[in-house]
Design brief:
By secondary structure, the chain is of the alpha/beta class. The chain has 3 helices and 12 strands.
């Protein structure tokens, strides 16, 4: 099956959420029409909460703390903010594999491979969306979430994607029940004692994307402030 070579884009200034949504909508439509290539867009947002299609209002603990956006992606409440690398993934599954479950598993593997670059073992759990790390130093059954996944698919083109906690303010997650799961915490690469920069995280994400999804992108475009 023929696979496209995605464009890679890195936005160095925080991107307002409304702007990101509009850009994704337009690009996904263009990919479906065959007028633009696939896109992997790495960015960060100002502090905000997003509500997926399964979000339960009781999980929004502090509704006035940050802006809250209703979004068409799957999943529940998620935090985005500085220090968290968001990767919006716009791929044409008609040119890859028309299998939603397999696509989500590929996203999980992409995160796991990226974490492995920094000697962090990421794991998935049945019934818990995202990627988790064991924290035996905090308790025998303690596991913290280090990356979230939330996608939408229209005309077999994907958008939304993943978020990897590099160095966000973890206290900001306390305003929600992240992804509806209260029994476990959240962590980041820096919280695990790894002073990883965005440059290093982005390089790992791009390299590991090829391992899971195939051909390299057509080059990284940086959008400066």
């Amino acid at each position: 099956m023929v696979q496209s070579s995605p464009e890679w884009r890195i936005s160095e200034a925080p991107v307002p959420y409304e702007e990101a949504l509009a850009t994704m909508e337009a690009r996904a439509a263009a990919i479906a029409d065959g007028t633009q290539p696939e896109l992997i867009w790495l960015l960060e947002h100002p502090p905000l909460y997003t509500a997926g299609t399964s979000a339960d209002p009781v999980d929004l603990i502090a509704p006035d703390r940050f802006p809250v956006y209703q979004t068409g992606r799957g999943g529940q409440y998620t935090y985005h903010g500085p220090g968290q690398r968001v990767a919006y993934v716009m791929l044409n599954l008609k040119e890859r594999k028309q299998d939603v479950r397999a696509f989500v598993q590929d996203l999980e593997q992409w995160i796991i491979n990226t974490l492995d670059t920094f000697n962090v073992r990421g794991e998935v759990r049945e019934g818990r969306v995202g990627v988790w790390v064991q924290r035996p130093e905090l308790g025998p059954t303690r596991e913290d979430k280090i990356a979230a996944i939330g996608i939408r698919i229209r005309k077999w083109v994907t958008f939304h994607g993943i978020s990897l906690n590099v160095e966000p303010d973890l206290e900001h997650f306390s305003g929600i029940v992240p992804c509806g799961i209260s029994q476990h915490g959240v962590t980041s690469l820096v919280d695990l004692g790894l002073p990883v920069s965005y440059i290093e995280a982005d390089a790992a994400l791009e390299s590991c994307f090829k391992q899971v999804f195939g051909p390299e992108g057509s080059g990284v475009t940086k959008q400066r402030p």
